[in-house]
Amino acid sequence: MPEHAPQHFEQASEKITLSFEDRDRLDRLFGDIGDNSLDHPTSEEETLIYAWRNMLKEENGKAAVYLLEKIESAIASAGMESNMWLALKQLLYCASGHHSKRIATILLHDKVSLNYDRSNKISALTLLQHIGTPEVIEDILRFAEKTTRAQYRWSTYENDDPTRLIRYDHTEALQAILGILLRTKNQNSGNASAIARINYSLATFGGNSISDEEKNNLQSYAVSDQQRFAERFTAPVFSHREDTNIREHQETHTEDMMYRDNEEDDREIANDYDTHNFKEVESRLETVKRLRHEIKKERATKEEPEEDGSKFLRRHFLEYREENPSPLTPTLGIEIEIREKSVFSGEELKKLHGTDEDWNIDIYEKKKDKYKKTVAMGIPYGYDKFWEFAHKPVKNYLTLSREVQALIEMGLINKEYAKHPLHMTIGWISKEAKGGGDVFLLARALEATGWSTTGGRLLRPYKASANGWNVKGEGGVMERYSQEIDLDVPYAVEIRTFQLQSLAGLDRMLRSAFFLGAALRAHLETKNSGKFFTQNAINTVEGLAIEKLAEVWESFAIECSRLFDKFQLKHPDEIWPAPNKFDDTYKQNTNPFVPFAALLDEAKDDPQKSQGADFVKKIRALVIEHRTKVKEIIYPR
To answer: DSSP letters along 295-310, please?
Structure first.
């Protein structure tokens, strides 16, 4: 029996409280989803639907609480929301067993159980079939028995036989129970009594009992339905973050279908496309130019954007590097999450979470106005925290560094706040390739420099109420595939353990990831003989460079492993299990991230004489030495 896919929710806290920030983010997410079905995407919608499914899972229970509150509010109101069934279906992708009691309570409410419209009860029963726990079986049986009271309500519908509709409810209730029993492996002990209760309830109004053949058919269907449901989660799940922009995908696809044959409307769409910067600009550096011009504009300078941009780009050689990239280097992309506490003052935060809802909305949206401008300038946004800068991938690390510099100068990233969560995606390397364990070594080495992480960040999944960076992936690393990545990159890895502590630290970390990533890419090329990367003839200049880069990586990996051994840390090329907030103290201390984090914190507290300082100093020296060797191979003087 396949297990229900989002099992990681089973440990999520039942008592989740949504912040104003959470509600705003989820309002936007469900606004984008609208009334689109997440169940059976067409080939045109596939990438978008998988992205939404993934985002709902990443909410780690918050999306479920959001939907449940909306449903409960609708039930408590005088009217009844016509699309409640849709919210119940969306819960399939974010709810867990922790929520099954609340769902059962919704099912038992008169507005659902005794309603002639069966859509809500069917959706609730299907949901319980897939995520319900054995404790709600009694509630489902109570629902089946309660529907007999609906006869007098349905008797006014002359064309319907009330006994037929009531039998439907009983049959579907039994199917939900069988699904729960199958998933929890209690079918032998529970199904006989459940069927007996169902049949007794049917007999009270003269309905026919459910036969053994019907029961067997329902049980077979429950097995196959579990399989079909599990397969929805085994298909590739694409993230919105490296996509050009999820709104872009949705809007342009819809408009294309509507106006394909209308020349005038086509021109209108093209103009709108340009205005919102949805298409890839001629130069990736246009984003930097726009950001820099915005700074000048705010400071009331008269310099034209083209002049301003060209001067800026000449200073940093960015235009040449972006438009003439080395075929040996990886691509880089980053996401920076902006938290409320880095945007609002302490007094504003008190008011924000106070009772004056009108003031809350007004101040919240006013603060977002400047952030929204950056979307038109070329930086897509994500759904995490107050705001998320989801920078598109670049072919040279300096481009990202300068974009972030501009955002800091615009006052959109608080440079006094050193804990902005940061994820980095490195293209052209894969942890699924032969020798892919070296990807974990790169992640641990970059963390060990302390340039863009701390011990606290590494232990966040243990210490914080949220799961932090271990929501998906292994050891803080997640594989990405071609559908998720720009610039025609076939695969990449995302490292999720970083944070933006300073622009200098970010620049050093990006530079190290860029050059060491090139060495790792070459190492994997030689290991996989072109299986994962473009085959290069050994006697070409490029082929010789790949050999040299691979040698640099092998030297780096050996020296890095020796350093980790010296400081009694787990080997860096192995998958380290993420800290788990449910571990007891003993298990916590055996987790390899714990002594690793302790060394980083020790280096931060005592940067001169501590053992941690010695470890960080040696790692940094090793990284700088080898990234310099890589740079000399890629960009020879």
So the answer is: HHHHTT----HHHHHH
Cβ atoms within 10 Å, residue 217: 13
CB atoms within 10 A of CB 416: 5
Kindly state the DSSP code that residue 617 receives in the 8-state scheme. H
Residue 447 corresponds to which tokens in the numbers above?
């963390």
Q: CB of 131 within 8 A of CB of 99?
A: yes
Maximum Cα interatomic distance, the chain, rounded to a whole number of Å: 92
Cβ–Cβ < 8 Å for 412, 319: no
Using CA atoms, how far apart are residues 468 and 461, in angstroms rounded to an integer? Answer: 5
Task: Kindly give the pairing relationship between strand 387-390 and strand 420-427.
Answer: unpaired
Decide: 311 and 285 in contact? Cβ < 8 Å: no
Q: Are 388 and 338 in contact (CB under 8 A)?
A: yes
Closest CA relative to residue 595, chosen from 557, 558, 568: 568
- Residue 412, amino acid: L
493 three-class SS = strand
Pull the structure tokens for residue 490: 């076939």
Alpha helices in 378-434 (DSSP H): 397-409
Tens of pLDDT along 480-526?
877 778 778 889 999 999 999 988 899 999 999 999 999 999 999 88
Picking from 346, 514, 339, the residue whose alpha carbon sits closest to that of residue 422 is 339
As a dihedral over the C-alpha atoms of residue 218, residue 220, residue 221, residue 226, rounded to 10 degrees, the angle is 120
110-142 per-position pLDDT tens digit: 888 887 777 888 889 988 988 888 888 888 888
Q: Report residue 346 as tokens.
A: 């302490």
pLDDT in tens, 281-317: 335 667 777 776 676 665 554 434 334 444 444 444 5
With beta carbons less than 8 A apart as the criterion, state whether 207 and 181 touch.
no
Query: CA 383 to CA 150: how far, in whole Å?
Result: 43
Helix, coil or strand: residue 348: helix
Tokens encoding 293 = 């011009």
Q: How far, in Å, CA of 581 to CA of 8, rounded?
A: 13
Residue 218: closest CA among 186, 181, 171: 171
SS3 of residue 427 by DSSP? strand
The DSSP element (H or E) to which 248 belongs, if any, is helix 246-259
Query: Taking a C-beta distance cutoff of 8 angstroms, is the pair 247, 61 a contact?
Result: no
Question: Contact 502/523 with Cβ under 8 angstroms?
Answer: no
Let me know how long the chain is.
637
How far apart CA 90 and CA 67 sit, in angstroms, is 8
* Distance from C-alpha of 232 to C-alpha of 93, rounded to nearest angstrom: 10
Question: Across-strand partners of 53?
Answer: none
Residue 37 DSSP SS3: coil
Distance of CA 12 to the CA centre of its chain: 16
Exposure of 204 in the CB half-sphere (CA atoms within 13 A): 15
CA distance 579 to 577: 7
